[in-house]
From TrEMBL, chain A:
Family listed: Belongs to the bacterial solute-binding protein 3 family.
Protein name, per record: Amino acid ABC transporter substrate-binding protein
SUPFAM superfamilies linked: Periplasmic binding protein-like II (SSF53850)
Transport among keywords: yes
Signal peptide: 1-22
UniProt xrefs under CDD domains: PBP2_BztA
UniProtKB/TrEMBL annotation, chain B:
Organism annotation: Pseudotabrizicola sediminis
Entry keyword set: Cell membrane, Membrane, Transmembrane, Transmembrane helix, Transport
Family of the protein in this entry: Belongs to the binding-protein-dependent transport system permease family. HisMQ subfamily.
Limits of the ABC transmembrane type-1 domain: 229-424
Matching SUPFAM superfamilies: MetI-like
Topological relation to the membrane, as annotated: Multi-pass membrane protein
Record protein name field: Amino acid ABC transporter permease
A Pfam short name: BPD_transp_1
InterPro entries linked: AA_ABC_transptr_permease_3TM, ArtM/GltK/GlnP/TcyL/YhdX-like, MetI-like, MetI-like_sf
PANTHER family: INNER MEMBRANE AMINO-ACID ABC TRANSPORTER PERMEASE PROTEIN YHDY, MEMBRANE COMPONENT OF AMINO ACID ABC TRANSPORTER
Subcellular location: Cell inner membrane; Cell membrane
Domain of life: Bacteria
Length: 341, 436
């Protein structure tokens, strides 16, 4: 009996010590020691994160994982992609199974504060839209009064939809669906007049239809969906690494640094900010616990923000998204990175 | 008088006549089986209409199958070229292109032979358990198969599974040593305690030491690279193999007169049966992480297997308890009268009969368990039905594909579940000893 009490106490102490350790260790150090970055991604979303036939993950979100791994290790392949679902993504992060979450997650007040996430930026500005069949004869979301609408349950889009119809004094009948694939099927089968989800998702969905010309995406965007990477609350050093890696990709596009000319610019550029960014002068990397050429490696992983966008979801891909809000601030978009100084 | 009547008496048998048209052959069968009453007639017609409707709906789609294409749009183009614009057809090219992913998930492609070999050996290991005409010596291989299968699937040092198996040998040795000295109860305790201590404290260092002396290792494969049917089979078969013995122990525990054993078994069974499997899976995947020290990599598949085994064991325990309850009291008394001790009575008299009665229930629990392996998608593992399918659909080439992956995965699951069900019927008829 004495022995079991002793063992029980020992076990409890170990657990408490473990929990305390979880708070204390720096994620950056853990990642470096492990030699791999555990990156939480979507189980599969066209253009953003999906494994190809040979099992290599690709996509817009995946490219950021690679960039962070490049910044830390100088090797973009040192990433473990951990597929997360919409129901377990936050727990995966808080429990420490993943180091960063980059899964089309909307930055909201309650997720940032109440759920103890730290969103380190926005890598894609999305917004909720509607898709309808041409023959419905609707050209604006304001004309959808009384429509049946297919909507994914348990997402921010569901709440946005209710808000929008209430604000415009309209009614609708919701057809709840579980996944995007199911939504497409229901919509095509005529179970609903309109399908609503993030505009990027609508574009990808429409592109995959047999008859995309018979469907139209309505012009109204009814919500703000800033999607960005999240890290655990309370580890600012690690948050800095992810945030500034993302900023480096954006800045690279602004300064015209591409994966093609980066080596040349690193040695020859006369622009002081480019020199600082690429580690030719100063040692910005040292300030966040990385090598001096961290940004160089991050950009080499998949190119600058614009290159990644074009390769994964841009207009030349089947998804065909325009830059829109996701253009540089100089081009009328919202991408605006603080200076590297 | 005699002569007058005799003309009316036949001296030879009439030749057998053909039965009336309505009482023979196909017509009779149809009349008796399909149109035996007005209600049955209506139901038959309705049934035929439904079947015809389904066939008319699906057959053209199936008949326009495309097996060679690189993407869904290519598929559609081929269908339009062959059968004209505006028709739909099945695009099986997605299965053709992605079937390695459906079978092996992200398992490294140059190591595919390992899961295949593991599966072949599994069949060898299972055969003597299923069919008693095979030589009994093969059972020894069945016993060590879990270690062989583990080593083939996950790779790594050969000494880890060897040391794990050694634990059982140590347990057996403990019984042999303790029983003559201290009796059955202490021997049972020693049989449990010695291997557990071995696994906890000595097996790891021993494996390391042996590995440094004689390094034999396969390339390691990590659990996150598992997916598709290899994942379903690993979880399903391990669950089936381990839940049966555990379930039987729990059933016996529930019948036991020993207070603590009894209450622990009842508590365990009722708790596990009262909680949905998904809750247990979430507990395994998320809640445990908060309690384990950071950096511990407690394998996710192992956690899921443990939960699935516990879950299925609770159900098996109740099924077996049903079998035990159906045995007449006389069987227990007969065992006692023969002077058999508890374990011998269970092994020789009670269990063979109780398990025979429970076969249908046990097999349906197993079938349920096997199908439940698809639930692991909720903890981020790539099960064949939804995990891999979603991943396939998320590629730009195959976005928009819907029925084909489901039909494919469903067909494979059906194959295995139907096989299990047929085997249970075979076993029942083989073990049938009553005269009903």
């Amino acid at each position: 009996m004495k022995q079991s009490v002793f063992l029980g106490t020992l076990a409890a102490t170990t657990l408490l010590a473990g929990a305390a350790l979880a708070q204390g260790t720096s994620t950056l150090q853990t990642v470096k020691d492990r030699g791999e970055l555990n990156c939480g991604v979507n189980t599969g979303l066209v253009g953003f994160a999906a494994p190809d036939a040979s099992g290599n993950w690709q996509g817009f979100d995946v490219a950021l994982c690679k960039a962070v791994a490049g910044a830390i290790f100088g090797d973009a392949s040192k990433v473990v992609y951990i597929p997360t679902t919409s129901s377990d993504r936050f727990e995966q992060l808080t429990s420490g199974r993943i180091d960063m979450l980059i899964r089309n997650t909307t930055w909201t007040f309650s997720r940032d504060t109440d759920l103890k996430m730290d969103f380190v930026g926005v890598n894609y500005y999305d917004g909720q839209g509607f898709m309808v069949r041409n023959d419905l004869g609707v050209s604006s979301a304001k004309e959808l009064n009384g429509a049946t609408i297919c909507i994914q349950t348990g997402t921010t889009t569901e709440l946005n939809l209710a808000d929008y119809f209430k604000a415009n004094n309209m009614t609708y009948t919701a057809v709840p669906i579980e996944t995007n694939a199911e939504g497409e099927q229901q919509y095509l089968a005529g179970a609903c007049d309109a399908y609503t989800t993030d505009a990027s998702g609508l574009a990808a969905t429409r592109a995959a239809f047999a008859d995309p010309e018979n469907h139209v995406i309505l012009p109204e965007i009814i919500s703000k969906e800033p999607l960005g990477p999240a890290v655990r609350h309370g580890d600012s050093e690690w948050g800095d690494v992810v945030r500034w890696t993302m900023n480096a990709l954006v800045a690279a596009e602004e300064f015209g640094i591409t994966s093609a000319n980066i080596d040349e610019l690193a040695t020859s550029s006369q622009n002081p900010e480019v020199q600082r960014l690429l580690g030719t002068s100063d040692n910005l990397g040292g300030m966040i616990g990385l090598e001096a050429n961290w940004a160089l490696n991050a950009i080499k992983a998949g190119g600058n923000y614009g290159e990644i966008f074009a390769a994964t979801i841009g207009e030349s891909t089947p998804i065909g998204l325009a830059r829109g809000l996701n253009a540089q601030w100089t081009q009328g978009g919202l991408l605006y990175t603080p200076p590297f100084r | 008088m005699n002569t007058s009547t005799s003309t009316f008496v036949r001296t030879e048998m009439l030749p057998e006549q053909a039965p009336p048209l309505t009482e023979a052959g196909a017509v009779k069968w149809v009349r008796e089986n399909l149109f035996s009453s007005i209600l049955n007639g209506i139901l038959t017609v309705l049934g035929i209409v439904v079947v015809a409707y389904l066939v008319i709906g699906i057959a053209p789609w199936l008949s326009r199958s495309v097996w060679n294409a690189g993407s869904l749009s290519e598929c559609r183009q081929i269908i339009a070229d062959r059968w004209g614009e505006g028709v739909t057809g099945a695009c099986w090219a997605v299965i053709r292109e992605r079937w390695p992913q459906y079978l092996f998930g992200f398992y490294p492609s140059h190591l595919y032979w390992r899961p295949v070999l593991a599966f072949v050996l599994l069949c060898v290991a299972v055969a003597p358990v299923l069919f008693d005409r095979l030589p009994r010596k093969m059972l020894w291989f069945s016993l060590i198969y879990p270690a062989v299968g583990f080593w083939l699937l996950w790779g790594g040092s050969v000494w880890v599974p060897v040391m794990a198996v050694a634990g059982f040998a140590i347990g057996y040795a403990a019984v042999k040593v303790v029983q003559p000295v201290a009796g059955t109860i202490l021997a049972t305790i020693a049989a449990v305690l010695a291997p557990v201590l071995w696994w906890l404290f000595l097996a790891g260092p021993a494996a390391d030491a042996l590995q440094s002396i004689l390094p034999i290792a396969l390339q390691g494969v990590r659990s996150r690279e598992f997916g598709g049917f290899i994942l379903a089979f690993t979880i399903g078969f391990t669950g089936i193999a381990f839940s049966l013995p555990l379930g039987v122990m729990l059933a016996l525990g529930r019948q036991s007169d020993m207070f603590i054993v009894n209450k622990l078994s009842v508590g365990f069974i009722e708790f596990i049966r009262g909680v949905p499997l998904i809750t247990l899976l979430f507990t395994a995947s998320l809640l445990l992480n908060y309690f384990l020290p950071p950096g511990t990599d407690f394998d996710i598949i192992l956690r899921v297997i443990i939960m699935v085994v516990l879950f299925a064991a609770a159900y098996i325990a109740e099924v077996v308890r049903g079998g035990l309850a159906a045995l007449p009291r006389g069987q227990y008394e007969a065992a006692d009268a023969l002077g058999l001790d508890y374990w011998k009575a269970q092994r020789l008299i009670i269990m063979p009969q109780a398990l025979k009665i429970s076969i249908p229930g046990i097999v349906s629990t197993f079938i349920g368990l096997f199908k439940d392996t698809t639930l692991v998608v909720f903890v981020g593992l790539l099960d064949p039905l939804k995990g891999i399918t979603d991943a396939v659909r998320a590629s730009t080439d195959w976005k928009g594909i819907y029925w084909e992956p489901y039909i494919f995965v469903g067909a494979i699951f059906f194959l295995f579940c139907f096989g299990m069900s047929r085997y249970s019927m075979y076993l029942e008829s083989k073990l049938k000893t009553d005269h009903r």
